[in-house]
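Tip: read the tokens left to right.
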């Protein structure tokens, strides 16, 4: 049996499409059997490392491509991190300040963000379960050495105009909840997968990816073999080499069994 390098998205892929964060026993069983059969497993997520680590421990997969492809974690240790294009963030930030919308910055891998005024809070409302935004009137963006993500809140039409004014160059746009705010973040998981495979000295031709959402599209375009979940968006299913049932219908287990990996 050829050793596969299998990368899993988290939400809606390893976890239920119906019960947020729930991992079925069939999925856990499939992962254990894949490991027993010698396959390499890793997560491939857009989440920040600090958000993904808890799930990583729960699911017992010590390898991870996170930060939308910009950070690589092998055996629980961060071995590579690439900053997003800082000029893009600076341009968007300045445009947001001129247009009077809310803006917040993620300067590190943590729950905390920083904002120059209270506009972000005024537009976004309560976001306390997701992050804490600290207001610092003395904030100067040029003094922040590393911007990991940028958050915008305000009228959607204005936010879209700001985003459209600047080529995003590898940075994606994620709408939080019902457009409570917008997150600008790295968005090329496969870049990280390719880098991880190089670091491991493995064969990229053996890569398999599982996913279901918008931020999996680049990964599906570039991966040698891509499997979409039954609950995946139509655009992803069109890019997939195979479509399996959702996790709620034992999709991970059934797909791995179908291809003889378990």
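Filled-in amino acids:
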């Amino acid at each position: 049996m050829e050793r596969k390098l299998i990368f899993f998205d988290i939400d809606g892929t390893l976890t239920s499409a119906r019960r947020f964060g729930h991992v079925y026993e069939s999925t856990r069983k499939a992962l254990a059997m894949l490991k027993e059969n010698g396959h390499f497993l890793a997560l491939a997520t857009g989440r920040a490392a600090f958000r993904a680590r808890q799930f990583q421990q729960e699911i017992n997969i010590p390898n991870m491509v996170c930060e939308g492809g910009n950070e690589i974690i092998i055996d629980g240790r961060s071995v590579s991190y690439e900053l997003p294009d800082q000029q893009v963030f600076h341009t968007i930030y300045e445009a947001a300040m001129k247009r009077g919308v809310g803006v917040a910055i993620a300067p590190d891998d943590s729950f905390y963000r920083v904002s120059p005024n209270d506009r972000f809070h005024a537009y976004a409302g309560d976001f306390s379960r997701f992050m804490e935004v600290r207001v610092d009137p003395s904030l100067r963006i040029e003094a922040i050495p590393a911007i990991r993500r940028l958050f915008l809140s305000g009228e959607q039409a204005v936010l879209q105009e700001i985003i459209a004014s600047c080529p995003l160059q590898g940075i994606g746009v994620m709408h939080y909840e019902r457009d409570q705010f917008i997150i600008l973040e790295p968005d090329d998981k496969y870049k990280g997968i390719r880098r991880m495979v190089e670091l491991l000295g493995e064969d990229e031709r053996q890569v398999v990816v599982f996913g279901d959402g918008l931020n999996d599209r680049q990964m599906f375009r570039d991966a040698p073999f891509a499997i979409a979940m039954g609950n995946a968006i139509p655009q992803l299913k069109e890019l997939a080499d195979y479509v399996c049932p959702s996790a709620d219908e034992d999709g991970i287990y059934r797909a791995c069994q179908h291809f003889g990996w378990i």
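The CA atoms of residues 65 and 72 lie 5 Å apart. The two ends are 10 Å apart (CA to CA).
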